[in-house]
TrEMBL record:
GO CC aspect terms: gap junction; plasma membrane
One annotated GO biological process: monoatomic ion transmembrane transport
Native source organism of the sequence: Dreissena polymorpha (Zebra mussel)
Descriptive protein name: Innexin
Function recorded in the entry: Structural component of the gap junctions.
InterPro entries, alphabetized: Innexin
Cellular compartments annotated: Cell membrane
Residue ranges crossing the lipid bilayer per the database entry: 28-44, 117-139, 193-213, 286-310
Mode of membrane association: Multi-pass membrane protein
Residue ranges of coiled coil: none
Keyword check for Membrane: yes
Family: Belongs to the pannexin family.
Lineage: Eukaryota, Metazoa, Spiralia, Lophotrochozoa, Mollusca
rRNA-binding found in the keyword field: no
Domain of life: Eukaryota
Length: 391
C-alpha cells in the first residue's frame, strides 16, 4: 500500500517531463493543491469538531442530544417559511422529507444543502483542475515523441564532459529532426493541437467553476427574489466599515430550525429545535477566497490561451526563439534564411520539444542541438537541390 501511495503521489505531483507554462501550473498544481488543502481542513473540522449545535429540551439525555445533532446535520433541505409568531421574518428550516415540507409549507422556497458534502465537492473541483494535465500527458504520446524519453535522454547533462555533451547534442538533434521529418509541413501538428485543446479545457473548467460558485453563493432573500451578484456582494462587504452589515450566502446558513420526529413506543413526538452551524462561518470564508482565486486564475488562463494562439499563428516568436538559440551557439554562423528554413521545417511542435529539452537541461545544450539540426536541414536541402538538378 505505501508503494501505491508513493506511486500515485509521484504521478500526480512528480511529472517534470511535461512542458507547461505559468498558467498551466497555476491550474493543475497551485489550484489543485489549494482545493485539496481546503477540503482537508473542512473535512477535519466536520470530523473532529462540532459542526452543529442544537438547543435541546431539558429532558434530553446526552445520547439524545448526540442523536439530535446527528439527525439535524444530515438534513438535506432548507425550507424558508414565514414565522408563526412574527409574520415579517422568514425562518430557515432543516427538513429531511422534501415532499411533506413542500406540501405543508406555503409561500416558501426550498434549497438543497451542500455544506455537508463540501469535502467531496472540493476534491471533485481539484480533480477537474488536474484532469487536463493528465489528458495532455496521455495523448502527447500519439504525436510520435515521448517527453519521458527526452527527459531520460537529457538526464545528468550537467555531469557530462564537453565531448559527451557534443555527442548527446548530435543524438538529440538527429532524433528531433527525424521526428519532424515524418510530420506534415504545417506549423500546427498533433502536439500543438493537443496543447491547444488542453489550454481550452483549462479555460472552460475554470470559467464553469467560477459560474457554479457564483450560482451557489448568490445572495438573495429567502423567497428567491432580489438576487445580487456574489462578486458585487464581496466588494460591498470588503468596503463596508461595519462588519455586522456583511451579507451572508444562503448556501451557508448560520442559524436554522430543525424539525425532528422521535417515537416513544406508540407515540410520535414532534420537535422543532434551534440549531447553530458554526462550521459554515469558515466554509463561507473559504469559498470567498476560492471565488477570488478562481477569478484570478480565469484572467491568467484566458490571457495565456490568447497569447499562445497568437504566438503559434504568427511565426515571428518561433523564428526569434530559434535565432536566440543559434546566437548562444559558439559554432553557429547561420543567416536569417537558415532560421526561417529551420522554423518551417520543425514547426511549432519542434519548438515545443526544444523548450522541453531546455527545461530538462539548459539553453546552452539546446543551442548545440539547434546548431546540429541546422546542419541536418542544410544537408537535406542540398540533397533536394541535387536531385532536382539531376532531373
Amino acid at each position: 500500500m505505501p508503494t501505491i501511495s508513493k506511486g500515485l503521489s509521484m504521478w500526480l505531483f512528480g511529472r517534470t517531463a511535461v512542458l507547461d507554462d505559468f498558467s498551466d501550473r497555476l491550474n493543475h498544481v497551485w489550484t489543485f493543491g489549494l482545493l485539496i488543502l481546503i477540503g482537508c481542513i473542512v473535512s477535519w473540522r466536520q470530523m473532529f469538531e462540532h459542526p452543529i449545535r442544537c438547543w435541546c429540551p431539558p429532558e434530553f439525555t446526552h445520547s439524545m442530544v448526540i442523536y439530535t445533532e446527528t439527525q439535524c446535520w444530515n438534513s438535506y433541505y432548507i425550507v424558508h417559511r414565514r414565522d408563526e409568531f412574527t409574520s415579517s421574518s422568514l425562518v430557515p428550516l432543516l427538513v429531511r422529507d422534501y415532499t411533506d415540507a413542500s406540501s405543508q409549507i406555503q409561500e416558501s422556497t426550498t434549497t438543497f444543502t451542500l455544506y455537508q458534502w463540501l469535502p467531496l465537492i472540493l476534491c471533485l473541483q481539484a480533480l477537474l483542475f488536474k484532469l487536463p494535465h493528465i489528458l495532455f500527458y496521455i495523448f502527447h504520446v500519439y504525436s510520435g515523441i515521448s517527453f519521458d524519453k527526452i527527459s531520460d535522454l537529457t538526464a545528468g547533462y550537467e555531469h557530462k564532459t564537453l565531448v559527451e555533451r557534443s555527442v548527446l547534442a548530435k543524438q538529440v538533434a538527429r532524433y528531433v529532426s527525424n521526428w519532424c521529418r515524418h510530420l506534415s509541413c504545417l506549423p500546427w501538428r498533433w502536439l500543438s493541437v493537443t496543447w491547444l485543446i488542453v489550454k481550452i479545457l483549462y479555460v472552460v473548467n475554470v470559467v464553469e467553476q467560477l459560474v457554479l460558485v457564483q450560482r451557489l453563493m448568490r445572495i438573495s432573500d429567502s423567497l428567491g427574489t432580489d438576487s445580487q451578484s456574489y462578486g458585487y456582494t464581496i466588494i460591498n462587504n470588503l468596503l463596508s466599515k461595519n462588519q455586522t452589515m456583511w451579507k451572508s450566502s444562503p448556501a451557508f446558513p448560520r442559524k436554522v430550525f430543525c424539525e425532528m420526529k422521535i417515537r416513544y413506543v406508540q407515540n410520535e413526538q414532534m420537535y422543532m429545535l434551534q440549531c447553530n452551524l458554526p462550521s459554515n462561518t469558515f466554509n463561507e470564508a473559504a469559498y470567498v477566497f476560492i471565488w477570488v482565486w478562481l477569478l484570478f486564475v480565469t484572467v491568467v488562463t484566458c490571457t495565456s490561451l490568447g497569447t499562445w494562439i497568437l504566438r503559434t499563428i504568427i511565426p515571428v516568436p518561433r523564428n526569434r526563439y530559434i535565432s536566440r538559440m543559434m546566437e548562444l551557439s559558439a559554432n553557429s554562423s547561420c543567416t536569417r534564411n537558415d532560421v526561417a528554413r529551420l522554423s518551417s521545417d520543425i514547426g511549432e511542435d519542434g519548438v515545443i520539444v526544444l523548450k522541453l529539452i531546455a527545461a530538462n537541461s539548459s539553453e546552452l545544450f539546446v543551442a548545440d542541438v539547434v546548431h546540429n539540426m541546422t546542419g541536418t536541414v542544410d544537408q537535406k536541402h542540398e540533397t533536394a537541390v541535387h536531385s532536382l538538378e539531376n532531373l
